[in-house]
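PROTEIN ENTRY
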Amino acid sequence: MRKSWLPAYLALGTVWGCSFIFIELGLEFLTPFGVTFIRCALGAITLIIIARIRKINLPTDRKVWQKLWVVALLLNVIPGVLFAFAQQYVTSVFASIINAATPLMTLVFKARANLWVTNWRSRCNDCCWCLERTW
């Protein structure tokens, strides 16, 4: 018998959606940087506990930790601060909808960029063909 994906999907949606509510609640007594720090700290503590339970060793190489810091900064800290800052001015519902629309907007921008690159290449080819004929 195959397990249903629906309970995990609903749990993920609930946890993901609640994060915006918790940001809004945190902003009542913290700055956007404080909210982001608490979110990242709770996430790190959770991951360390899971790693310990599963007996997974953390990396010991300094280079790996430097790369992890860069990734954490770009994918967790900066977006976290920006979301918390934005939620001072918009509702948590609106912030979560904008976040959910990110993949769709990425698709739109990618399609537009591909169209621009294709047009640019064809113009360059036409121009190069003209230059070849004149030289």
